[in-house]
Amino acid sequence: MRKIALLFILVCSYIAGFNQHYITRNGVARFYSKTDLEDIAAENKQLLAIIDPSGRSIAASILMKGFLFNKALMQEHFNENYVESDKYPKAVFEGVYTDPVDAGKNGTYKLSVNGKLTIHGVTREISLPAILEVIDGVLKGKAEFQITPEDYKINIPSLVRDKISKKVDVFISFECKKQ
Amino acid sequence: MKPIQKKRMILAFVLVVILGVGIEYSFYLYNKPRITALVSSTELRIDAAVLFRDYKQDELLANHKYLNKIIEVKGIVQEIDSSSGNMSVLLLTGSEGAINCSMAVMPKADIHKKEILVKGKCAGFMMDVMMVDCVIP
Questions:
Q1: Which chain B positions have a beta carbon within 8 Å of A63's beta carbon?
Q2: Contact (CB<8Å) A24/B127
Q3: CB contact under 8 A, A46 and B88
Q4: Does B83 sit within 8 Å of A26, measured CB to CB?
Q5: What pTM was computed for the model?
Protein backbone atom coordinates (compact mmCIF):
# COMPACT_ATOMS: atom_id res chain seq x y z
CA MET A 1 0.00 0.00 0.00
CA ARG A 2 2.86 2.32 0.93
CA LYS A 3 4.50 1.57 -2.43
CA ILE A 4 1.30 2.45 -4.30
CA ALA A 5 0.98 5.70 -2.34
CA LEU A 6 4.61 6.55 -3.11
CA LEU A 7 4.10 5.80 -6.82
CA PHE A 8 0.96 7.98 -6.83
CA ILE A 9 2.91 10.85 -5.25
CA LEU A 10 5.70 10.41 -7.81
CA VAL A 11 3.27 10.38 -10.76
CA CYS A 12 1.49 13.46 -9.38
CA SER A 13 4.82 15.28 -8.93
CA TYR A 14 5.82 14.31 -12.47
CA ILE A 15 2.53 15.58 -13.91
CA ALA A 16 2.76 18.76 -11.81
CA GLY A 17 6.36 19.21 -12.96
CA PHE A 18 5.45 18.55 -16.58
CA ASN A 19 2.65 21.11 -16.41
CA GLN A 20 5.15 23.69 -15.26
CA HIS A 21 6.80 23.88 -18.68
CA TYR A 22 6.32 27.10 -20.62
CA ILE A 23 7.13 27.14 -24.30
CA THR A 24 7.30 29.26 -27.42
CA ARG A 25 8.16 28.26 -30.96
CA ASN A 26 8.33 31.82 -32.20
CA GLY A 27 10.66 33.81 -30.02
CA VAL A 28 12.73 36.51 -31.67
CA ALA A 29 16.53 36.73 -31.85
CA ARG A 30 18.29 39.70 -33.44
CA PHE A 31 21.93 40.55 -33.79
CA TYR A 32 23.70 43.74 -34.77
CA SER A 33 27.19 44.63 -35.76
CA LYS A 34 28.07 48.30 -36.12
CA THR A 35 31.30 49.63 -37.55
CA ASP A 36 32.31 52.84 -39.36
CA LEU A 37 32.29 50.89 -42.63
CA GLU A 38 29.06 48.91 -42.36
CA ASP A 39 26.04 48.16 -40.20
CA ILE A 40 24.87 44.55 -40.21
CA ALA A 41 21.60 43.32 -38.75
CA ALA A 42 19.75 40.01 -38.91
CA GLU A 43 16.59 38.67 -37.36
CA ASN A 44 15.18 35.21 -36.65
CA LYS A 45 11.58 34.86 -35.50
CA GLN A 46 11.60 31.12 -34.86
CA LEU A 47 13.40 30.75 -31.56
CA LEU A 48 12.27 27.67 -29.66
CA ALA A 49 12.38 28.35 -25.92
CA ILE A 50 11.30 26.21 -22.96
CA ILE A 51 11.22 27.43 -19.36
CA ASP A 52 10.71 25.27 -16.30
CA PRO A 53 10.05 27.64 -13.37
CA SER A 54 10.10 24.79 -10.83
CA GLY A 55 13.59 23.75 -11.90
CA ARG A 56 14.63 27.36 -12.70
CA SER A 57 15.90 26.10 -16.03
CA ILE A 58 15.72 27.48 -19.54
CA ALA A 59 16.57 25.95 -22.90
CA ALA A 60 16.53 27.59 -26.31
CA SER A 61 17.33 26.50 -29.82
CA ILE A 62 17.41 28.31 -33.15
CA LEU A 63 18.16 27.47 -36.77
CA MET A 64 20.99 29.52 -38.28
CA LYS A 65 19.28 29.45 -41.68
CA GLY A 66 16.34 31.27 -40.09
CA PHE A 67 18.39 34.47 -39.67
CA LEU A 68 17.28 36.91 -42.33
CA PHE A 69 19.38 39.82 -43.60
CA ASN A 70 18.30 42.72 -45.77
CA LYS A 71 21.07 41.98 -48.26
CA ALA A 72 20.97 38.59 -50.01
CA LEU A 73 24.77 38.33 -50.34
CA MET A 74 25.28 39.03 -46.64
CA GLN A 75 22.88 36.19 -45.77
CA GLU A 76 24.73 33.87 -48.15
CA HIS A 77 28.13 34.73 -46.65
CA PHE A 78 26.77 34.33 -43.10
CA ASN A 79 25.49 30.81 -43.84
CA GLU A 80 28.23 29.54 -46.13
CA ASN A 81 31.42 31.21 -44.94
CA TYR A 82 30.95 32.18 -41.31
CA VAL A 83 28.53 29.96 -39.34
CA GLU A 84 28.61 27.12 -41.90
CA SER A 85 24.93 26.41 -41.31
CA ASP A 86 24.85 23.22 -43.42
CA LYS A 87 27.42 21.68 -41.05
CA TYR A 88 26.21 23.39 -37.84
CA PRO A 89 22.49 24.10 -38.41
CA LYS A 90 21.52 25.06 -34.83
CA ALA A 91 22.57 27.31 -32.01
CA VAL A 92 21.56 25.92 -28.62
CA PHE A 93 21.45 27.37 -25.11
CA GLU A 94 20.84 25.43 -21.91
CA GLY A 95 20.99 27.14 -18.56
CA VAL A 96 19.57 27.95 -15.18
CA TYR A 97 18.60 31.19 -13.50
CA THR A 98 19.30 32.18 -9.94
CA ASP A 99 16.16 33.58 -8.34
CA PRO A 100 12.76 31.88 -8.14
CA VAL A 101 9.95 32.99 -10.46
CA ASP A 102 6.33 32.59 -9.41
CA ALA A 103 4.59 31.87 -12.73
CA GLY A 104 1.20 32.06 -11.04
CA LYS A 105 1.56 35.67 -9.98
CA ASN A 106 2.06 38.77 -12.14
CA GLY A 107 5.44 40.39 -11.61
CA THR A 108 8.79 41.35 -13.10
CA TYR A 109 11.99 39.50 -12.25
CA LYS A 110 15.56 40.56 -12.97
CA LEU A 111 17.47 37.34 -13.39
CA SER A 112 21.01 36.21 -13.87
CA VAL A 113 21.13 33.31 -16.32
CA ASN A 114 24.10 30.96 -16.47
CA GLY A 115 24.52 28.22 -19.00
CA LYS A 116 26.15 26.76 -22.06
CA LEU A 117 25.81 28.34 -25.49
CA THR A 118 26.68 26.26 -28.54
CA ILE A 119 27.28 28.02 -31.85
CA HIS A 120 29.24 26.68 -34.84
CA GLY A 121 29.84 23.44 -32.94
CA VAL A 122 31.66 25.26 -30.11
CA THR A 123 30.19 25.22 -26.58
CA ARG A 124 31.04 27.97 -24.11
CA GLU A 125 29.86 28.90 -20.64
CA ILE A 126 28.06 32.24 -20.61
CA SER A 127 26.38 34.38 -18.02
CA LEU A 128 23.87 37.04 -18.93
CA PRO A 129 21.26 39.29 -17.33
CA ALA A 130 17.64 38.77 -18.35
CA ILE A 131 14.23 40.15 -17.48
CA LEU A 132 11.30 37.81 -17.06
CA GLU A 133 7.84 39.27 -16.78
CA VAL A 134 4.84 37.19 -15.71
CA ILE A 135 1.62 38.53 -17.22
CA ASP A 136 -1.51 36.45 -16.68
CA GLY A 137 0.35 33.15 -16.87
CA VAL A 138 2.50 34.14 -19.85
CA LEU A 139 6.27 34.42 -19.31
CA LYS A 140 7.71 37.31 -21.33
CA GLY A 141 11.47 37.23 -21.48
CA LYS A 142 14.12 39.68 -22.70
CA ALA A 143 17.89 39.39 -22.77
CA GLU A 144 20.75 41.34 -24.26
CA PHE A 145 24.32 40.14 -24.47
CA GLN A 146 27.41 40.19 -26.66
CA ILE A 147 29.27 37.41 -28.37
CA THR A 148 32.70 37.40 -29.98
CA PRO A 149 32.63 35.42 -33.26
CA GLU A 150 36.22 34.21 -32.77
CA ASP A 151 35.22 32.58 -29.43
CA TYR A 152 33.06 30.21 -31.47
CA LYS A 153 35.75 29.61 -34.09
CA ILE A 154 33.90 31.72 -36.64
CA ASN A 155 36.69 32.86 -38.89
CA ILE A 156 36.26 36.21 -40.57
CA PRO A 157 38.68 36.95 -43.42
CA SER A 158 41.01 39.91 -42.78
CA LEU A 159 39.69 41.60 -45.94
CA VAL A 160 36.26 42.12 -44.31
CA ARG A 161 37.31 42.08 -40.62
CA ASP A 162 36.94 45.87 -40.30
CA LYS A 163 33.36 45.63 -41.54
CA ILE A 164 32.28 43.37 -38.68
CA SER A 165 32.50 44.50 -35.07
CA LYS A 166 34.68 42.51 -32.66
CA LYS A 167 31.67 41.92 -30.41
CA VAL A 168 28.23 41.31 -31.87
CA ASP A 169 25.18 42.55 -29.93
CA VAL A 170 22.44 39.93 -29.49
CA PHE A 171 18.85 40.67 -28.44
CA ILE A 172 16.37 37.96 -27.44
CA SER A 173 12.65 38.33 -26.73
CA PHE A 174 9.94 35.71 -26.33
CA GLU A 175 6.56 34.96 -24.82
CA CYS A 176 6.28 31.46 -23.37
CA LYS A 177 2.89 29.93 -22.69
CA LYS A 178 2.01 27.01 -20.41
CA GLN A 179 1.93 23.61 -22.07
CA MET B 1 45.80 61.88 -84.66
CA LYS B 2 47.83 58.90 -85.83
CA PRO B 3 45.92 55.60 -86.33
CA ILE B 4 47.97 53.92 -83.54
CA GLN B 5 47.09 56.73 -81.12
CA LYS B 6 43.44 56.47 -82.11
CA LYS B 7 43.50 52.73 -81.48
CA ARG B 8 45.01 53.24 -78.02
CA MET B 9 42.39 55.86 -77.19
CA ILE B 10 39.57 53.49 -78.19
CA LEU B 11 41.16 50.64 -76.20
CA ALA B 12 41.51 52.86 -73.11
CA PHE B 13 37.89 53.98 -73.47
CA VAL B 14 36.66 50.37 -73.76
CA LEU B 15 38.70 49.37 -70.68
CA VAL B 16 37.29 52.25 -68.65
CA VAL B 17 33.73 51.29 -69.70
CA ILE B 18 34.32 47.59 -68.78
CA LEU B 19 35.82 48.61 -65.42
CA GLY B 20 32.90 50.96 -64.72
CA VAL B 21 30.31 48.31 -65.59
CA GLY B 22 32.21 45.76 -63.44
CA ILE B 23 32.26 48.08 -60.40
CA GLU B 24 28.62 48.99 -60.88
CA TYR B 25 27.63 45.31 -61.16
CA SER B 26 29.64 44.34 -58.06
CA PHE B 27 27.98 47.19 -56.15
CA TYR B 28 24.55 45.97 -57.35
CA LEU B 29 25.31 42.36 -56.31
CA TYR B 30 26.62 43.46 -52.91
CA ASN B 31 23.54 45.54 -52.16
CA LYS B 32 20.98 43.28 -53.83
CA PRO B 33 18.09 42.91 -51.38
CA ARG B 34 16.97 39.53 -50.09
CA ILE B 35 13.95 38.39 -52.02
CA THR B 36 10.86 36.85 -50.48
CA ALA B 37 9.03 33.80 -51.79
CA LEU B 38 6.60 36.14 -53.56
CA VAL B 39 8.97 36.73 -56.46
CA SER B 40 10.67 33.32 -56.43
CA SER B 41 9.43 30.43 -58.50
CA THR B 42 8.05 27.37 -56.70
CA GLU B 43 10.28 24.31 -56.77
CA LEU B 44 7.98 21.86 -54.95
CA ARG B 45 4.36 21.51 -53.85
CA ILE B 46 3.58 19.36 -50.83
CA ASP B 47 1.03 18.62 -48.13
CA ALA B 48 1.89 19.79 -44.57
CA ALA B 49 1.47 16.29 -43.13
CA VAL B 50 3.78 14.73 -45.75
CA LEU B 51 6.47 17.39 -45.27
CA PHE B 52 6.44 16.90 -41.49
CA ARG B 53 6.43 13.12 -41.79
CA ASP B 54 9.44 13.22 -44.13
CA TYR B 55 11.40 15.34 -41.63
CA LYS B 56 10.35 13.22 -38.66
CA GLN B 57 11.39 10.01 -40.42
CA ASP B 58 14.75 11.12 -41.78
CA GLU B 59 15.95 14.70 -41.23
CA LEU B 60 19.07 14.27 -43.35
CA LEU B 61 17.17 12.92 -46.35
CA ALA B 62 14.43 15.55 -45.93
CA ASN B 63 17.05 18.32 -45.82
CA HIS B 64 18.40 16.98 -49.09
CA LYS B 65 14.91 17.19 -50.60
CA TYR B 66 13.58 20.44 -49.11
CA LEU B 67 16.26 22.61 -47.43
CA ASN B 68 16.75 26.06 -49.04
CA LYS B 69 14.07 25.27 -51.61
CA ILE B 70 11.03 27.42 -52.33
CA ILE B 71 8.08 25.19 -51.55
CA GLU B 72 4.32 25.55 -51.47
CA VAL B 73 2.75 23.79 -48.49
CA LYS B 74 -0.94 23.04 -48.15
CA GLY B 75 -2.39 22.72 -44.66
CA ILE B 76 -4.95 23.83 -42.10
CA VAL B 77 -4.02 26.82 -39.93
CA GLN B 78 -3.50 25.67 -36.33
CA GLU B 79 -2.38 28.97 -34.84
CA ILE B 80 -1.39 32.52 -35.77
CA ASP B 81 1.38 33.85 -33.54
CA SER B 82 1.82 37.59 -33.28
CA SER B 83 3.69 37.60 -29.94
CA SER B 84 6.99 39.52 -29.61
CA GLY B 85 6.31 41.36 -32.88
CA ASN B 86 5.97 38.08 -34.72
CA MET B 87 4.12 37.15 -37.88
CA SER B 88 3.92 33.36 -37.86
CA VAL B 89 1.37 30.92 -39.17
CA LEU B 90 1.46 27.34 -37.90
CA LEU B 91 0.00 24.61 -40.10
CA LEU B 92 -1.41 21.37 -38.67
CA THR B 93 0.41 18.19 -39.58
CA GLY B 94 -1.63 15.61 -37.68
CA SER B 95 1.40 15.15 -35.44
CA GLU B 96 2.89 16.92 -32.41
CA GLY B 97 4.87 19.34 -34.58
CA ALA B 98 3.69 21.92 -37.09
CA ILE B 99 4.86 23.67 -40.24
CA ASN B 100 6.07 26.93 -38.73
CA CYS B 101 5.78 29.66 -41.39
CA SER B 102 7.45 32.99 -40.63
CA MET B 103 5.50 35.38 -42.83
CA ALA B 104 7.04 38.17 -44.91
CA VAL B 105 3.56 39.63 -45.23
CA MET B 106 0.75 38.81 -42.83
CA PRO B 107 -2.50 37.88 -44.60
CA LYS B 108 -5.36 40.30 -44.08
CA ALA B 109 -8.09 37.70 -44.47
CA ASP B 110 -9.20 35.51 -41.56
CA ILE B 111 -7.35 32.24 -42.13
CA HIS B 112 -7.69 30.65 -38.69
CA LYS B 113 -8.65 26.93 -38.96
CA LYS B 114 -8.89 27.29 -42.74
CA GLU B 115 -6.99 25.32 -45.34
CA ILE B 116 -4.42 27.52 -47.03
CA LEU B 117 -1.41 27.36 -49.30
CA VAL B 118 1.80 28.93 -47.97
CA LYS B 119 4.83 29.57 -50.14
CA GLY B 120 8.22 30.00 -48.51
CA LYS B 121 11.80 28.86 -48.12
CA CYS B 122 12.48 25.75 -46.04
CA ALA B 123 15.01 26.56 -43.28
CA GLY B 124 15.16 23.16 -41.56
CA PHE B 125 13.70 21.24 -38.67
CA MET B 126 13.56 21.54 -34.90
CA MET B 127 10.26 20.74 -33.19
CA ASP B 128 8.50 22.04 -36.29
CA VAL B 129 9.49 22.25 -39.94
CA MET B 130 10.65 25.86 -40.32
CA MET B 131 9.76 28.01 -43.33
CA VAL B 132 10.93 31.60 -43.75
CA ASP B 133 10.06 34.60 -45.93
CA CYS B 134 6.60 33.12 -46.46
CA VAL B 135 3.67 34.51 -48.43
CA ILE B 136 0.23 33.27 -49.34
CA PRO B 137 0.37 33.04 -53.13
A1: 123-124, 126, 130
A2: no
A3: yes
A4: yes
A5: 0.85
Q: Which of A22, A28, A38, A45 to mutate to test the interface with B (most CBs of B within 10 A)?
A: A45
Interchain CB distance below 8 Å, B133 and A68? yes
Tell me the C-alpha distance between A22 and B12, whole Å: 68
**Buried-exposed string A130-152: b where 16+ CB fall within 10 A, e elsewhere:** bebebeeebbbbebebebebeeb
Domains of chain A: 21-178 (2.40.128.110)
| Partner-chain residue, chosen from B30, B34, B86, that has the shortest CB–CB distance to A26 | B86
Chain segment A4-56, per-residue pLDDT in tens: 444 444 444 444 444 579 999 999 999 999 998 889 999 999 999 999 999 99
ipTM score for this prediction = 0.82
Query: Which segments within A53-160 are labelled E, that is strand?
Result: 57-63, 68-69, 90-97, 107-119, 122-135, 138-147
B132 three-state secondary structure: strand
